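Consider the following assembly input.
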Amino acid sequence: MSNSTDLSRAEELTEQLLSGNRRALSRAISLVEGDTPAGRLISGLVYPHTGNAQIIGITGSAGAGKSTLVGSIAREERKRDRTIGIIAVDPSSPFSHGAILGDRIRMQDLTSDNGVFLRSMASRGNLGGLSEAATAVSDLLDAAKFDVVLIETVGAGQDEVEVANAAGTTVLVANPGAGDDVQSMKAGLMEVAQIMVVNKADLAGADTAVAQLRSLLAIANLGAWKPPILKTIASSGDGVPELVDQMDEHQKFITVSDHADQERIDHARRQILALARAVMHRQTLAEAADSLSLDMLTSQVAVRSKDPRAAAIELVDALRSSWSGTSLSK
Amino acid sequence: MTKEQPIRVLIAKPGLDGHDRGAKVVARALRDAGMEVVYTGIRQTPKMIAEAALQEDVQVVGLSILSGAHLELFPRVVEELSSRGVDDVLLFCGGIIPAADIPRVKEIGFDGVFGPGTDTSDVIKFVKEHAPTRT
């Protein structure tokens, strides 16, 4: 529920962040990330000012070198005189809900550069909220006029993959010798990436990894964009200029090529669906937790008089009927 | 509708000593107490610490220092923070702070001083009790 204090706060922060106030940007990010009433108002206020930044998602398994690569990309973008906002996502503990956010360690030299804004973000549980929050925070960085926004996330599980929906271009980071990595890509990650990177390309097996990716791409169901496969050594910066060139190529593809209109429509649709999924997930689980039907169904399933799948459907049905006439947006 | 927001803490090591065991132990303890802990690593300048605190919008900044340069570096951290308008954060420190320096360190603005042998539960309790609430 928002009130007039929330509104004036949201208006003030929005105005400040649009004019480049980093402190206001930082506060706004917290409000948006926390899904507060003021944060929701800010999201609405900044949205008309978005759409100018190049939004890049960087995903891949833990240890693939994503943070180091993000640091190298940021340095390359700075050489090209572009400002850059970075969102680095790390997992929250499912037990304590706490998190250690360590991405700044790999990007220390960027901390005192005014053309860079790095924000660490904890995934905060599994309620489908990560893609929601990352999308909203990326909008803020876009509105604050950063030329490039990088979203870095561990590519494991649907929630992380859906972060790709916020990005215009998603880069998948793999490593040599990680056969399992390539296996796991078959299960969904291949489809979300527009650029493939074999990082740590100085290790043995880099060419094999490239070949494996190429053969997977050969049988994938691709559209008009053919994902390039690049080799990088993030720690030295080798291959990074070429990677940034390809990111720019894809940006042209989605903004000024003949495919741009269709890409914009597809992107908007994917984004809405991903966010709707997140909202439904969160809303349903929150209501389910304190629903009377849940208690009743629990006792039936516990004594095996009803199977859990039937109980789940009944629970969702009960919630849906209680929704009629109610609105989430008020 | 609004959920309780986790406390965000920055743990940093200013100056030139590389002994980060203490900082890491505290970072993990705070994480296990449900906080979101941004860890910056070693050899941070006051400017880097203040800029990280601004970008991460933390409520709490904890510094670990074993080099003896605390009376040099702590005031500069406070200066850099306030020059960025970050003046509503809780400050605490740990490492090797001689007893004679503690009053001065508190005067600079570090309300909590935790030396060797501190129980991490004391740090957690301190942070939970004193972290400014954010709305």
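The beta strands of chain A are 54-60, 84-90, 99-101, 116-122, 148-154, 169-174, 195-198, 229-231. Ask yourself how this observation constrains the way the partners meet.
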